[in-house]
Amino acid sequence: MAATGCCVLTDFVRPELQETLRSEGAAVAPHAHYDVETVNVYNIAVDGELPADHPGRVEFQRGNAFVARDLIPEDLIVHRLYTHPVFRRFVADCFGLEEVHELADPLSGLCLNVVRPGMEHPWHFDTNEFTVSMLTQAPESGGVFEYCPGIRTAEAENFDDVRAVIEGRGEPLVRRLTLRPRDLQLFKGRFSLHRVSPVAGAVERHTAIFAYSEHPGVIGSASRTRQLFGRVLPVHLEAGRAVRGDLLLD
């Protein structure tokens, strides 16, 4: 974690529960909000006032989908993990934090990411500094997690390297992980450019995302929530923009 901002703990869920983990995810996957949209690595307006050579000018088609927390039953393995105080304590210790909290957001605290065959999750940065996830169903092929550890810092965007990677010229900066179901991934995605490569074959790629915050009461913005889940609740309309510890593009 200290060296690359990423750690994979293999076989985190017991082998005899692998099929249960997979089938539970597959059962809720049809409830995912699906949309194809034009994005860039910063998830900001692609038609914004950016210089012509800015990496934010490079557009991608994002065609992945998300199942919101309120559609994931509480008895599922991923839900039981997300809400368990021992698991939360473990996550905090892994990231060297005093404490982490479940998001107060009723939709985005826990979600299932669905990438259908032929689709991908293109290059991007996370808005949160750390991410916890677990593959629950692997695709037949493709769907490889690729990342560029520490390609930017809180003080420097490093636009030249970012553009080199998204244009296919930054191969030395890219690392790859072929994740397996039951593996727990701990990742610092705020400063590491990353993506899921196109999924091939006939099987969807399913990943549970456990979202925590160092501060209690965190709720996503209405615009981001609508983008991910196709709907908002009254609590999102009342929430302000998340406070960041840096001035980076989102």
From TrEMBL:
The keyword Metal-binding applies. Residues 105-216 form the Fe2OG dioxygenase domain. PROSITE patterns: FE2OG_OXY (PS51471). Keywords: Iron, Metal-binding, Oxidoreductase. It holds the Pfam family HalD. Signal peptide: none annotated. InterPro entries: BesD/HalB-like (IPR056470), Oxoglu/Fe-dep_dioxygenase_dom (IPR005123). Belongs to the iron/ascorbate-dependent oxidoreductase family. This is Fe2OG dioxygenase domain-containing protein.
